[in-house]
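hey so i finally got around to running both of the ones u sent me last week. sorry it took forever, my laptop kept dying halfway thru and i had to restart like 3 times lol. anyway pasting them below in the order u listed, first the sequence line then the structure token line for each. didnt double check formatting much so if smth looks off just lmk and ill redo it

first one:
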Amino acid sequence: MLSKGCIESSSRIVEAARDYKYLLNRGYPAGSSLNIVVTRYRMSRVERSLLLRCVHRDEYVAKVLRSVVSRDAILGSNLLIDLLNVSTTLIAFLEGECLYKCDDGIIRDLGGSRYWRGRRERVSEAINLIRDHLIAVKPVKIYLVLDRHAPMSGEILRNAEKIFRESGFNVEGILADRADKKIIELSRGLEDLIGVVATSDSLILEKADQIYDLAGEIISSIDPSRVDGSIYAELSIKHQ
């Protein structure tokens, strides 16, 4: 069941999303395009966030859809986890926040990193969910990449490494000045490593060769009814 207060699919929301995608597909800047659509449809802050996070140009969507791999592809692979990104989506799920399947097929929340701040216990719960899911998936090695500027980053990364090692995983934690840049470098083999990327960050997804929607797969395996799939159903090029 969808959480209370979530954006309900309507002809207004769908038309706004289509207009925004139309502008993106024709090369107009995302910021000004979003402002035009938000003003025209008198959209709320939350509705604006939905468009920003869940609607993309078709070229990007096609690339992501081609790059997404199933859990079977994780077996024997290196898995690069954007720990802040994946954990915040899982925390949003644990706290009953709204979740959406976007036009690129990736499941996202609308709150971003604010779910991370001050939620030490929730972060641990999220990490345990990741651990439990990966026990069955069995990557050969896990790289936990975390932005060093994130609150509690060092403590959380050490705890995450401990949780994974105690379950028998080969794991390496990496604190990076820019987690997105580090993950892109690792995923492209620029540091003698080729791996599958787990994130919903569109900047990373656009450049990654193999993508696993880790948070989305975990959520879908526990309670798929929590995810609103209307944007994906209406706008994804997979359905055109």
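and the second one:
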Amino acid sequence: MDKRLLESVMKLNGDTGATLAEFLGISRGTFSSKKNETNGAEFTQSEIAAIKTRYSLKAEQVDSIFFNQNVS
């Protein structure tokens, strides 16, 4: 996962971790764990789909953010 890319998309859209967590229906701590991949935490398919819709992301952008094998 490329957390820096996710953070830049969030900032461009005026979101913070707290606002996106609320949108996804998860706690700020859970969001942070998923963003940082703490203890193997990952976003679910439905959360990724919701983020894609919220930010009008293209499939390539979703792949770059969530399926990038490089550690950020």
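quick thing i noticed on the 2nd:
The mean pLDDT is 94.
anyway thats it, ttyl
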